[in-house]
Amino acid sequence: MQTVVLAAGQGTRMRPLTERRPKPMLPVADRPLVGHTVTSAVDAGASSIVLVVGYEAEDVRSYFGDTVDGVDITYAVQEEQRGTADAVRTAANHLDEGPFVVLNGDALYDDPSLASLYETDAAVGSYRVDDPTNYGVLTTDGAGTVTGVVEKPADPPSDLINTGAYVFPAEAQTWLDVGESERGELELTDVLERTCGEYAVESVPFDRWLDVGRPWELLEANEWKLGELERDIRGDVADGADLRGNVVVEEGATVEPGVVIEGPTLIRTGATVGPNAYIRGATLVGEGAKVGHAVEIKNSILMEGATVGHLSYVGDSILGRDVNFGAGTKVANLRHDGGDVKLTVKGERISTGRRKLGVIVGDGTKTGINVSLNAGVVLSTDARIPPGEVVTRDR
Ligand code: TTP
Questions:
Q1: Alpha-carbon dihedral angle through residues 370, 278, 30, 301, given to the nearest 10 degrees
Q2: Residues 158 and 180 in one domain
Q3: Does residue 310 carry a catalytic annotation?
């Protein structure tokens, strides 16, 4: 079935990581976030894909080109981010007259559930959560047919939330001109509501689903996709290195003597690790990144060209492109009171729900020697932290 993937978002809640790239292009294991959505869609039966792009569109275009595994990809440019119904309307002249699937390009969907969605004539992917109050919550008639969706209800009508994966009947292409919602957006959920009024819309339960909106959710996305890796050693690994479990060392990567890696870990091409480094947890060492002597990295993402050269500890953190940590830079990833680490997202201090979270570092930032970074600190793009500082607030 023809498929529209929404990837025009700015990802403002993901800043500073999205200052120089669109959220769908953030790295998740061996590909960008939206690469997983597109591959899953192709595997589930997408006959063609329209990618709706906007912010930093060229990044998305140059990554995918014109086809993925033999399936044609076209691009619809949404100049202004006016809402998800507007995004699909932008894609409409790329669609033929048949039914169509819509997927959020910033969510991970489990493959078997997505395949079930593609089997239906009209459906919305649902996911069961303990606390639905922050989501779009589906109402059903008790027999599994969806009757509507309520946004962020104080008193949720069910524990099934909207995953942003839909199958719409062909007729819905004529319903995309919706009015503005209370929050001033043109919402695809209004199109869903109308579809529920005229068609039997199934709720297709997803076994696993993750909406990647905030920085720690990028860590969770990597934990998921790195966890699916199978051991594969192609790079240059010294005899004295000890690679345990599901470790992938891509061709062109180097692992020096004395290194211990406990998978799941992906060392991408051009990266170097060691000598004498320790990597554990779900860790991505991006293309050309460097983990040097006596460095410990735990459950973290080092984007392309990031360098942690010597005598440093990085835990549960995200280091943007070309970040450079000076010798002895240490990251705290646990509060003394054991409480959940808080992070500031769009000016609002919020709990991440994680006991373990380190720092989020924008592209190009450098720390001097012996810098201490407190749990939950966000460093902006191209920041400079002088030697010896103890950083307890965002910079
Ligand atoms: P959101 O996560 O609501 O928006 P966003 O990605 O811009 O992130 P933030 O809120 O942090 O700024 O969007 C959900 C999906 O829909 C996502 O894949 C982006 C896409 N989208 C569009 O393509 N066009 C739009 O106008 C909007 C609002 C979203």
A1: -30
A2: yes
A3: yes
Determine the residue of 18, 38, 81, 82 to mutate for testing ligand 1's pocket, defined as the one with the most ligand atoms within 8 A of the Cβ atom: 81
Residue 160: CATH number of its domain: 3.90.550.10
**Per-residue pLDDT of the chain in tens (395 residues, 90 and over written 9):** 999 999 998 899 999 999 999 999 999 999 999 999 999 999 999 999 999 999 889 999 999 999 999 999 999 999 999 999 999 999 999 999 999 999 999 999 999 999 999 999 999 999 999 999 989 999 999 788 999 999 999 999 999 999 999 999 999 999 999 999 988 999 999 999 999 999 999 999 999 999 999 999 999 999 999 999 999 999 999 999 999 999 999 999 999 999 999 999 999 999 999 999 999 999 999 999 999 999 999 999 999 999 998 999 999 999 999 999 999 999 999 998 989 999 999 999 999 999 999 999 999 999 999 999 999 999 999 999 999 999 999 99
Report how far residue 145's alpha carbon sits from residue 148's, in angstroms, rounded to the nearest whole number: 9
Q: Determine whether the shortest distance from the Cβ of 13 to ligand 1 is under 6 A.
A: yes
Would residue 327 be called left, alpha or beta, if left means φ above 0 and alpha means ψ between -120 and 50 degrees? beta
Ligand 1 centroid to Cα of residue 155, in Å, is 25
Domain boundary among 181, 211, 241: 211
